[in-house]
Amino acid sequence: MFLDTFHLLAANAADAGFLEKLNGRLNLGDIIVTVALFTILLVLLKKYAWGPLMGVMDQRAEMIANEIEQAEKSRVESQQLLEEQRKLLNDARTDAQAIVENAREQGESQREEIVKAARNEVSRLKEEASLEIASEREKAVQAVREEFVSLSVLAASKVLGKEVSEEENRALIEETIAKAGDGQ
């Protein structure tokens, strides 16, 4: 119907009685009532439907904006925590390497001290052994001298106590040697 009306408007635009013809075809009262009802309907829709609907949409938009803001804050906080964790991990690695290096150095130092103490102990033991060997050698030499002196005294007393023949001299020397062997 509206197309027909527009065709008529285009065809009759040149006519002077265009509005009269249009008014004859259109009912002005119906148009006014329709526009008034449409306006009332728009006001009612705005008050009871559009306003609450826009309020709900605004609340929804605000909620989404808050969630986005919270998500961004959480992301930034997570990034900060991740950086802190990485820093702590790097610090822990550095500390662990320092501890291992320190332990290695202490171990090396202790090893050197132990080797030095062992060498000192070996030197001390060698010196003690040398002194003990020298002392024992002196004691042995002293004992041999004392034995030799006593054998010489024994042999001289026997020789002086009587005159011996060559055969008796030989027997006396063998007896002295045998006694010297028994003394050791």
From TrEMBL:
GO terms for molecular function: proton-transporting ATP synthase activity, rotational mechanism; proton-transporting ATPase activity, rotational mechanism. The keyword Transferase does not apply. CDD domains: ATP-synt_Fo_b (cd06503). It is found in: Cell membrane; Endomembrane system. Signal peptide: none annotated. GO terms for cellular component: endomembrane system; plasma membrane; proton-transporting ATP synthase complex. It is a single-pass membrane protein. The chain crosses the membrane at residues 26-45. Its main location: membrane. Keywords: ATP synthesis, Cell membrane, CF(0), Coiled coil, Hydrogen ion transport, Ion transport, Membrane, Transmembrane, Transmembrane helix, Transport. Residues 61-146 form a coiled coil. The keyword Ion transport applies. It comes from the Bacteria. F-type ATPases have 2 components, F(1) - the catalytic core - and F(0) - the membrane proton channel. F(1) has five subunits: alpha(3), beta(3), gamma(1), delta(1), epsilon(1). F(0) has three main subunits: a(1), b(2) and c(10-14). The alpha and beta chains form an alternating ring which encloses part of the gamma chain. F(1) is attached to F(0) by a central stalk formed by the gamma and epsilon chains, while a peripheral stalk is formed by the delta and b chains. F(1)F(0) ATP synthase produces ATP from ADP in the presence of a proton or sodium gradient. F-type ATPases consist of two structural domains, F(1) containing the extramembraneous catalytic core and F(0) containing the membrane proton channel, linked together by a central stalk and a peripheral stalk. During catalysis, ATP synthesis in the catalytic domain of F(1) is coupled via a rotary mechanism of the central stalk subunits to proton translocation. Belongs to the ATPase B chain family. This is ATP synthase subunit b. It comes from Sporosarcina pasteurii (Bacillus pasteurii).
